[in-house]
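FIELD: query
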Amino acid sequence: MWITAEPLHFYISLAERLNWSYSGGMELTVDAVHQKILAPLVVGLTTLTFGEALLEVLTLGAQRSPDALSHMYLAVMGGYVSGIEMQKWTQKIPADPADDPWIERVQRTGLIMGLWWLLFIGTHLWRYKDPTVPMPASVQPIVMGLTLLFIGKNVSRHVRHTRRGVGGAWGRGPDADDSAEDTSLDAQVSAVLESQPEGLTLQD
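FIELD: result
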């Protein structure tokens, strides 16, 4: 199979438009993998798995997913969360939280985890009243997996901000707090001394 120069230039141009990089071959950039592949998968699988689990509960098991998607869902979510956190740890400039995409902010706040916990606890309590209500097989492993991801993400984020600082207009380095306090204290002492040229008394 022969590839002429004209089609080759077309494919390279198309790859660049898709935010691909060419360096001896074509490979997706890290940010493109997160935002153009994993993020849509996270949104889609969250909607699908949660909707199927809720449907199974409300129909008392009459409508049940033929396939178990919990492992696939947790693999995609884990890859998305850990990949972004690893990227922020290794980049030269501290990450700016204002630049985080909306799906990362939703995951970081615990909203997705909270929805699954609400479904789990609600179904669990409902089963006391009606034992025929099923507990979907995917709910418990997803709840445990999302809880571990939530804790790990926030611990890593706290340590990263402490050691590397926070980027952006309001960002401050790991030693910024101490230096700012020292500067402010020196300025206050200097102002007091300048206002009392004859020295300070005990009453002052």
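FIELD: remark
The mean pLDDT is 78.
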